[in-house]
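Feature request, filed as a ticket because there's no other form

It would be nice if the structure record came with a short human-readable summary line next to the tokens. Right now we just get the raw output. Example of a typical job, pasted below so the devs can see what we mean:
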Amino acid sequence: MKYNEKEERKERREKKKKKKQQKKENRHFIRHTVFSLITVLILNIAGSFPGFCDFYTDHIYVYPAAALGFITSLVPFAIGEIVMYILALSVLCTAITLVLFIFLHRHESFRHHTSNSLKSLVRTAVNFLFTYTLFWTIPIRGTHLGHDIPSSAVYETADILELRNYLAAKTNAASRTVPRNEKGSLILEDADTMNRHAAEGMKKYSYYYTRLDHYCPPIKNAICSDVLDWMDIGGYTYPYTMEMTQNKYCSRLYQPLLYAHELCHHLGYYKESEANFLSCIGCAASDDPIVSYYAYFEMYYYLDKAYRTSIPDETLRGDMTALDDQVWIDIRESQEEAAKLYASEYHPLERFKPEAEKAATTGWSTQGKILGAYSYDGVINLLMRFYGYEGK
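Raw output as currently delivered:
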């Protein structure tokens, strides 16, 4: 009897000790969470001032971004993408745990497990919120290109046509200087070499766009490249690991420009118009003739689209054959090569392709409405300004 009482007292002491420890852990968890959220709130309030965002991105952001980008570059696969999958699985597991809690809530061990799961999920969410604030929310809220450049203007159709024809002439001239084999097809260097030339071209403008003069990590192939391909997504930059990923099924001719685009995001130019503009002029300035060639074609493509939009009536557009046939042959051959690569590999999720395409259509439309002049087509305004045309 005495033995049982002794054991009971011991158990009560143990329970009290556990409860005390639990309360201590809960207080620490609440303090940490509240402190982190207050910090995020203060940073976002400061981020409402574009001047602060520009200063932070130019003088602070670029250094931890470079350090983290260098560390993650040592791993051959995209850590950020793996983390994203793990998080999705964690959310699903937590949801299942909450459902089971309805039936098993009387079991102390299960209550403890559920509590720990929720705390882990909250900690992860708060940490991601903090990281995204430092590496994405503040930089993207700065002024356009860090120089408060107006995001839009109205240009005369004649000016758009003039620049479009100039870029067509540059593209045609470049097509006659690029290396070709005996069949007339382009001879492309390896991806790393072309990407390096793209980065070097962009650095030529670092005297004005100073963020371009920082570390340029390599780009990694996305594990879910087939899904990205269905959704017409070329690449993605993970702000919480500062990794750049690409859809490996994009044409090799396009990949240096894609690398330059994602690199702009990595360096703090997160608006799509910024990244498109800087990647185009940077690659056009490259010493690699192939990289420069495609950059001129891309700029022509945007201006040609703008010209067609400015004159909806096709009968009034005049002669639209601005590019040589050889340019279109190069583009087609590059696209066919990419299609062969896709066809040569197994895609177990391909039955979900229609759903991915529908989601992409909705997503692109929504993004365009939200970003407005800062969306991909905003590059037209920047190119017109860059080449000396004054809009209204």
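Something like this underneath would help us a lot:
Residues 2-46 form the longest helix (45 residues).
The longest strand covers residues 235-238.
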